[in-house]
Design brief:
The complex is a heterodimer. By secondary structure, chain A is of the alpha/beta class. Chain A has 8 helices and 12 strands. In chain A, the strands form 2 sheets. Chain A has an 8-stranded mixed β-sheet with strand order 6-7-8-3-9-10-12-11, sandwiched between helices. In chain A, helix 5 runs parallel beside helix 6. The longest helix of chain A is centred in the middle third of the chain and has 16 residues. The radius of gyration of chain B is 24 Å and the shape is globular. Chain B has 2 domains: about 80 residues; about 240 residues, MetI-like fold, CATH 1.10.3720. Classes of the chains: A alpha/beta, B mainly alpha. Chains A and B meet through helix 2 of A and helix 10, helix 11 and helix 15 of B. Chain A: It catalyses: Ni(2+)(out) + ATP + H2O = Ni(2+)(in) + ADP + phosphate + H(+).
Amino acid sequence: MEKNTILEIRNMNISFSQYQKGTKQTKLPVIRDLSLTVHQGEMVAVVGSSGSGKSLLAHGVMGILPYNAEMGGQILYCGEPLREKRICALRGKEIVMVPQSTSYLDPLMKVGTQICKGKKDPERKKKLDGIFRRYGLAEEVQEQYPFELSGGMTRRVMISTAMIEEPKLVIADEPTPGLHLKAAKRAMEHFRELADMGAGVLIITHDLELALETADRVLVFYAGYTLEDAKTEDFRQEKTLRHPYTKALWRAMPQNGFHYIDGVQPYVKDMPEGCPFAPRCEKCTEKCRGEIPYREVNGGYVRCVYDS
Amino acid sequence: MKNTAGKFILKNFVKMVLLIFAVSIAAFALMTVSPVDPLQANVGQAALGSMSQEQIAKLEEYWGVGEPPVQRYLAWLKDFLKGDMGVSLLYRQDVAKVIAVKLGNSLFLMIIAWVLSGLIGFALGALAGMNRGKFVDKAVKGYCLLISSTPAFWIAMLLLIIFGVWLKILPIGLSVPIGVEASGVTFLDRVYHAILPAVTLSITGIANIAMHTREKMVDICESDYVVFARARGESLWQIFRNHGFRNVLAPAMTLQFASISEIFGGSVLVEQVFSYPGLGQAAVSAGLGSDMPLLMAITIISALFVFGGNLIANILYGVIDPRIRRGGAAK
């Protein structure tokens, strides 16, 4: 039953070096411990609130972190380590990223040329025409500049940059903000299609509801850690969920009562010892101050000392 | 569309007229408060001492001493508006004629320097910006900082000593060979004499343009769209061709046209060092010799050049940038 694993991330951590008070350099760990797997034809969503460092995950895999960032852990692509040389050869071909906002499009380059990376062979042009028809974009749009596009069109243009290649792995960084519900759903469906065509799709989003509608699995990301790795079905009821934070998220959904919990995600600089969610967790005890294992429970994973 | 173009032209024409008016008043005001006594400067203390009162009075009238400044300015303005720039007091020729000759010499020099510094500066700046932090970048940056902190006239003297005095391969000054009739001067002679001043002007011009271009390029390389281009597997060269060049072109163009003023300013000093009979040198002698009509005309022409440069940059911006070209047209 095991499908081919496309991407496997083991204990990824990313930190920034920052200057403080003149020459003192400090490290700012934004992602502390993140593990996930994406299989062929599977759509996995990483869900976390804003400012939790989710986007860095995409940049880390693509090898485009800023110069003052440092990454640890292991990334395996199709079973083999994905180091700098390999990602440089594969990105933009087998591994593609769909970026977050319009600022990722060159403002001075026509949309069509940009999707084709400046290449002009007729084969690409034909493929592009096909993609545009599929996404309901008029052919004139190819001759337009990014500033002339609407939000939904921009989104589709950015997905087109992935479609023009032959991707085995698609990483989408926040593909839906700024879109109205219908357009956001459509954007998610486009990614679902990519997964159904056989690619592994990793969606990074803060919209749990949208993720649950289209993804196969959902990873809950909080303060630099993956707290839970659950199947989408697990979200049908609270008791199949594993982590107290995930449960809190579930209860916060409108159809489940709209309950909220106090507090905010801790800032990178004042992280609590042990479980990052401990200060907001009602089940928190002394045990939560120690090392928290990330373990398998009921076909998913959880980073919690308690059994749900 | 036609209407906006007409408005644009009219607006800029009014701006230009106002600018010239303001510049002429400022230049004139500075001249009137200048401590230079035209008689002492141009005739000399010794000669003045041996002159009769009537002769001195005649000279004073010629140089405009004692005449109320406002009246003098208005007289000048009246002639200027009629298209008459007056007669140069030093050269005893029509200002228009003097300027035509000097400007011809200077333009030759400045165009070479402008084109050279623009092209080389752009290339160096782009190269450094694309390779930020690497050896090329450090070398270019080092060069720019060194040159920027060196006065142009000092570089001029240095080059003069090396190439003119020690190596003797280039002339030490002037724009034509000494002792040759004007009709016998060839184009090559002119180029030969323009090399050193033009190179001096370029060397200093390059630093400025390269530094600014580098800065822009670094910004572009840190932009989201270049990060995305890298994520799409584009090579450094592809990134430059697809994104870097395109995005740096407009600011570089503005810079290039704005640098006209710096080349103009630099040429004043450089021409002085090389005794190059151009507009810059004429400006210096007009200023020191209280040649009001000539200095006013040179000031206004310089202002026109700078204004024209900026105007061209503005127009080109609209041509290059689709956000202005198309966005403006849509509204």
